[in-house]
Design goal:
Helices cover 18% and strands 21% of the residues. It is of the alpha+beta class. The protein has one domain: Sulfite Oxidase, Chain A, domain 2, CATH 3.90.420.10. Strands 1, 4, 5, 8, 9, 10, 12 and 13 form an 8-stranded mixed β-sheet that branches. Strand 4 and strand 5 form a beta hairpin. Bound molecules: ligand MTE. Ligand MTE binds next to loops.
Length: 316
């Protein structure tokens, strides 16, 4: 297998970079941040399958959870990623199909920095942080993961959305060769998700490029995914290829698929049961006993104010 050793000059410029974003990029280059990013990202160029590269220069982020981490083996072999199959062990088995180098992310809609960016260009001007977050799946299991990434807010601010942009929409790759689960219509492809602008700008919301100090594995959403820890796991869309800034609330896959069961907001709420099961408790992967689920997955102090005045039983 070819393992590219990347040097700073290996970093590609944005493939089609609009003038606004290009100016921004030059600004970051001028600060030297991109040079640092080249080092941090050296491992992410590897066209790996089932292999990760350590991420260096990662700072400890301000958010953490004082609980044992989920076993890495479990977090990388028990997954939901319908593009790689609907079974929990399908994503790891099919991971080798998902080639992620090169990888571009289209930025469009109501934003000054519209264009197509290599994912490295989108991320590397920012400092990589490790943050330990709980993630609660709608299926009542949960995990505690040390994610590595950047606050989505930093990337959004650099892209300069227009004042009329009220939402941020995300899409996953459509490519049945690299995502063999897309041969079947288990879900309408592409997988889509969306956040209100204030949710997207919230400091907890993260664009993650790794876990456990290493680059992201395909089954966990390589090379770049969202992590929104106060929402059910399905909002944390994997393998993102498009980020759009919109005035209207964007479509979200599970909400489109079954609006009675899955709302747009999908904030973790032990008081609102899924129509087919209770959400009051959850089982940490690797533990036997269930534990109570916390409102907003335990992040209420940080995020409850975003929903002041909203009826969370209607806006589920
Ligand atoms: N993103 C895409 N593109 N496709 C998916 O099927 N599944 C979601 C979310 N992101 C999914 C996705 C669900 S239901 C969960 S619980 C989390 O990814 C699981 O993330 P993990 O496998 O890294 O634990």
């Amino acid at each position: 297998m070819l393992i590219r050793k990347s040097k700073p000059h290996d970093i590609r410029s944005s493939e089609i970079t609009p003038s606004g974003a290009y100016m921004d990029r030059r600004r970051f280059l001028a600060t030297g941040a991109a040079g640092a990013g080249a080092v941090l990202f050296s491992g992410l160029f590897m066209p790996t399958v089932g292999r990760t590269a350590p991420l260096s220069g990662v700072i400890k982020g301000s958010y953490t959870v004082d609980e044992p981490l989920t076993d890495k083996e479990a977090a990388t072999t028990y997954n939901n990623f319908y593009e790689l199959g609907t079974g929990k062990d399908d994503p790891v088995e099919n991971a080798h199909y998902l080639k992620t180098d090169p990888w571009t992310v289209a930025i469009d809609g109501l934003v000054k920095g519209a264009g197509t960016y290599s994912f490295e260009d989108l991320i590397h001007p920012h400092k990589l942080e490790e943050r330990v977050y709980r993630l609660r799946c709608v299926e009542a299991w949960s995990m505690v993961i040390p994610w590595v990434g950047v606050p989505l807010a930093d990337v959004i601010r650099r892209l300069e959305p227009q004042g009329s942009a009220k939402y941020v929409a995300f899409e996953t790759l459509v490519d049945p060769v690299r995502m063999p689960g897309q041969v079947r219509n288990a879900l309408p492809w592409p997988y889509r998700e969306g956040l209100r602008m204030d949710e997207a700008l919230h400091p907890l919301t993260m664009l993650a490029v790794g876990m456990y100090g290493e680059s992201m594995l395909p089954q966990n959403g390589a090379p770049i995914r969202l992590v929104v820890p106060w929402k059910y796991g399905f909002k944390s869309i994997k393998s993102i290829v498009r980020i759009s800034f919109t005035e209207e609330q964007p479509p979200a896959t599970w909400n489109m698929q079954n609006p009675r069961e899955y709302g747009f907001y999908s904030n973790v709420n032990p008081d609102v049961d899924h129509p087919r099961w209770s959400q009051a408790k959850e089982r940490r992967i690797g533990e036997f006993f269930k534990r109570p689920t916390l409102p907003f997955n335990g992040y209420g102090e940080d995020v409850a104010s975003l929903y002041a005045g909203m009826d969370m039983t209607k806006n589920y």
